[in-house]
Amino acid sequence: LSLSSNRLSGEIPDAFCEMESLQVAILGNVTGLVGFDDMYLDCNHFTKLPEGMGRLKNMFTLWMEATGLEGPLPDGLYDCPVLGSIQIGTCVTTAGYKNRIGVFSERFGDMPYLSSLWALNAGFSGNIPRNIGNAQYLTQLLLHSNDLTGNLPEELANVTELTTLDVRLNRLSGEIPERVMNCEQSSGWMLEPQQD
Length: 196
Known about the structure:
mainly beta, 2% helix, globular, seven-stranded parallel sheet
């Protein structure tokens, strides 16, 4: 399904998630496909995702760049059994849509196959949840330019596959935990000095 470059706006209806045979949905500007069972919602003005996203049993990739999402992500998103790659926010396009999602959900740590979370300028606030350390397949966690506060969780040291971490331009405080700094893979992490 391709509805790219249509300047769509509003909420995506819940019935959208009932198309069981849908493998690729392109509702944005995409120049190439990563694989099957992907959804690209970028560069439209979708303010809310359908709660029924958990019914998309084969969705592995979800791109929501510059969509203008408002409010929390639906609980159903975290129930997608194989969802591994999520891209939210990233940049503000010429259309000027900026996400305002709110609190960074601890449910991200409960996603069994989450390998990549790119949430640059995604409108996240609050703390980075400690249970993000449960995301055993997480290799990329980019949280640049949000409104995240509190300490960097020590549990990030449990994510042994994490090769890319970017938490710059947030309002994190306290010292970077020693366990995190001593991680073998931390040399490629982009951490700024914490504010006190």
